[in-house]
Design brief:
The structure is a single chain. 41% of the residues lie in helices and 20% in strands. α8 packs antiparallel against α9 and α9 runs antiparallel to α10. The radius of gyration is 20 Å and the shape is globular. The N and C termini lie far apart (48 Å).
Length: 295
């Protein structure tokens, strides 16, 4: 019997965390079958041995993808999109990276139940706890939103933690090729999915988002993170030119971040390098203005 849901987990050097993540997956109590696809990006710390240990115990449930060469370092992005989701057999996909974990055994059952009954929703997520230095606290990273939102709220900025997401796999059929190149995968994915339906927030704390120095995002220098956000906004702005409200909100955020980046470049690099970057941003601004005029 094909699984109804695929748990999509990407991991790299998460030896201290991956066991807890997998146990959270296997602890799920559902009235439907599900599968677990774990993509390891060539870990060198013992993570792979733990994955293989669980695969041996649960060969009909856990399906690893073990890279021999680190893919993220190539700068191509789209790890899940290129390697995991094409193999997913589920009607729904649930996300959780290898350093986060689930704490509610009925989490995916509740989310699938909701999406099955509400076809006008494309994404279902929930509240999470934050763990830092081994201590749990309430989520003080994302902003609070109503239990039902849409793409216009999402365009103002992300409010969804990755380990809380469940979405309809069928919506990925036309996923834009250039979105795959983004090194920040969750927000472009959510914006794309939100075109096709509303967003549901379940009032449950069903996962833990872990903050630590080795995580893919938090280990990146602040300046580099800002640059990657600018890059994915540059992908999203022209894509959503058909929707004026979304377009303007994304463009406003891009413009604000670009200005701050220009000031940083003027201080940090030689004048000629900063000038070339400024010209690139000006050209993009002109393109966005043309798109606005064409609407």
């Amino acid at each position: 019997m094909n699984p109804i849901l695929t748990i999509s987990c990407i991991t790299y050097n998460h030896k201290n965390y991956i066991r807890q993540a997998i146990i959270g997956f296997l602890s799920q109590k559902t009235n439907f079958p599900f599968e677990i696809i774990i993509h390891d990006d060539s870990s060198n710390d013992g993570t792979i041995a733990i994955i293989k240990e669980f695969q041996t115990k649960y060969p009909d449930k856990i399906f690893p993808i073990l890279q021999e060469e680190n893919q993220f370092s190539k700068g191509e992005g789209g790890i899940s999109t290129r390697f995991v989701w094409p193999k997913a057999r589920g009607k729904y996909i649930a996300l959780c990276e290898g350093d986060d974990y689930w704490i509610d055994p009925f989490k995916i059952q509740k989310q699938v139940d909701f999406l099955e009954k509400n076809k006008d929703f494309s994404i279902c997520f929930h509240s999470v706890k934050i763990e830092k230095d081994g201590k749990l606290r309430e989520d003080d990273i994302t902003r609070d939103v109503p239990d039902s939102t849409d793409i216009y709220e999402l365009a103002k900025g992300n409010f969804i933690h990755t380990p809380s997401i469940v979405f309809r796999k069928e919506l990925l059929k036309a996923y834009p090729e250039n979105f795959i190149k983004s090194q920040v995968g969750d927000y472009p994915l959510l914006m794309y999915l939100a075109q096709f339906g509303k967003i549901k927030k379940l009032e449950i704390n069903a996962a833990v988002y872990r903050l630590h120095s080795n995580s893919m995002w938090n280990s990146i220098e602040k300046r580099t993170r800002r640059g990657r956000i600018i890059k994915y906004l540059e992908l999203l702005v022209p894509y959503f030119a058909y929707d004026k409200m979304v377009f303007l909100e994304l463009h406003k955020r891009w413009k604000k971040l670009s200005r701050s980046r220009i000031f940083e470049l003027l201080k940090a690099y030689r004048i000629i390098e900063a000038f070339l970057e400024i010209m690139r941003l000006i050209v993009l601004e002109c393109k966005f203005q043309v798109l606005r005029l064409l609407k």
